């Protein structure tokens, strides 16, 4: 009898088309076992949009996401790309331009509330525009915002209104960048979901994307969050996410270092000042992560003996779950204003102008690079 019931169950969400599953609430198509009694049978994300005007995040891997993106360039669409300012290079969708074609792109830069209040916002916007261009993304508009505090959303909605015309709106972004908050705001401003979704079956469409109807017959298309394996947020244990993802404004931590000194960021990463004149380095990382200074010659021994204790997170039982560390060495040119960026962990600003040789140790696969200073 159970086998017969199992065979009668729908295999796909009637809202978004995702394959239904009851194991992982963070993946497309999740619904609780008891929800199979509903009619129509929809996944939890579609159910929350329909009943609560609220979207929740689901995620897919990079290959699946690129498959979902294919074809946008052939449509008449407006693309809203949400990135995390704290993890700008790690959350920007590389190669997005070749998928969107000539369609306009609004770059919504979220989590701006994390920066110090003295930040020059015009310079920050110019930095984002220049950095996006260097990374191959052409933007029609850059909007600095904070999903958590609701800052900048009116301007973002104005930009969507002025650029949308008779277009559908595709919202794209990596995981943990605040995409759901933006989708929920768009829903409340543009769509009478209560009326639309109770008079017809849920109008979601294909494979893991959700179509949210607008009043003019067009749609907001909510795409799943893309999982980028080079970000710390995808590597650490769930209980350690708060340690790497700041919830409060960053408090810059400045260190005067001599060559031959090292900074540990908990047990998750390490910064070595290898060569150069005595100078200052400013760390922009989560305030929940302890920074420990030591001599470079003692760093390897300290890591072996104190990982999971003085150097934590990760906890000792989780240390072996992370990839082995890889060393990245950089020569900082004299007179340059540079950050050493570590995706999902933050960045170290090189304050001196004398030049330096520095190195970062991070789990293999984490994106580490030198960029023009953000602040």
UniProtKB/TrEMBL annotation:
Protein name: CP-type G domain-containing protein
Organism listed in the record: Paenibacillus sabinae T27
InterPro entries: G_CP_dom (IPR030378), GTP-bd (IPR006073), GTP-bd_ribosome_bgen_YqeH (IPR019988), Mito_lipid_metab_GTPase (IPR050896), NOA1/YqeH-like_C (IPR048422), P-loop_NTPase (IPR027417)
Coiled coil feature spans: none
Gene3D superfamilies according to UniProt: P-loop containing nucleotide triphosphate hydrolases
UniProt signal peptide: none
PANTHER family: GENETIC INTERACTOR OF PROHIBITINS 3, MITOCHONDRIAL
One Pfam family here: YqeH-like_C
Molecular function GO terms recorded: GTP binding
Start and end residues of each CP-type G domain: 66-229
């Amino acid at each position: 009898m159970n086998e017969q019931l199992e065979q009668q169950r729908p295999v796909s969400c009637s809202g978004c088309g995702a394959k239904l599953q009851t194991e992982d609430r963070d993946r497309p198509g999740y619904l609780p076992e008891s929800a199979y009694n509903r009619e129509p049978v929809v996944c939890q994300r579609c159910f929350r949009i329909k009943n609560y005007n609220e979207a929740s995040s689901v995620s897919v891997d990079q290959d699946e996401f690129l498959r979902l993106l294919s074809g946008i360039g052939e449509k008449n669409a407006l693309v809203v790309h949400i990135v995390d300012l704290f993890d700008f290079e790690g959350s920007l969708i590389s190669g997005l331009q070749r998928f969107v074609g000539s369609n306009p792109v609004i770059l919504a830069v979220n989590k701006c509330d994390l920066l110090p209040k003295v930040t020059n916002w015009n310079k920050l916007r110019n930095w984002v525009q220049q950095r996006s261009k260097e990374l191959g993304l052409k933007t029609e508009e850059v909007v600095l915002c904070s999903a958590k505090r609701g800052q900048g959303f009116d301007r973002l909605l104005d930009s969507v209104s002025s650029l949308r015309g008779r277009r559908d709106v595709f919202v794209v972004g990596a995981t943990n960048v605040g995409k759901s908050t933006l989708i929920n705001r768009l829903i409340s401003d543009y769509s009478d979901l209560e009326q639309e979704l109770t008079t017809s079956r849920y109008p979601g469409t294909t494979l893991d994307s959700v179509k949210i109807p607008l009043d003019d017959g067009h749609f907001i298309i909510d795409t799943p969050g893309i999982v980028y394996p080079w970000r710390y947020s995808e590597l650490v244990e769930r209980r350690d996410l708060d340690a790497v993802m700041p919830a409060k404004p960053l408090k810059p931590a400045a260190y005067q270092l001599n060559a031959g000194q090292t900074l540990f960021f908990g047990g998750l990463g390490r910064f070595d000042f290898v060569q150069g004149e005595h100078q200052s380095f400013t760390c922009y990382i989560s305030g929940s992560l302890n920074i420990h200074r030591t001599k470079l010659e003692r760093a390897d021994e300290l890591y072996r003996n104190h990982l999971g204790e003085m150097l934590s997170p990760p906890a000792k039982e989780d240390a072996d779950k992370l990839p082995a560390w890889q060393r990245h060495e950089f020569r900082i040119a004299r007179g340059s204003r540079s950050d050493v960026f570590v995706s999902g962990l933050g960045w170290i600003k090189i304050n001196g102008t004398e030049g330096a040789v520095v190195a970062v140790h991070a789990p293999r696969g984490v994106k580490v690079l030198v960029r023009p200073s953000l602040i």
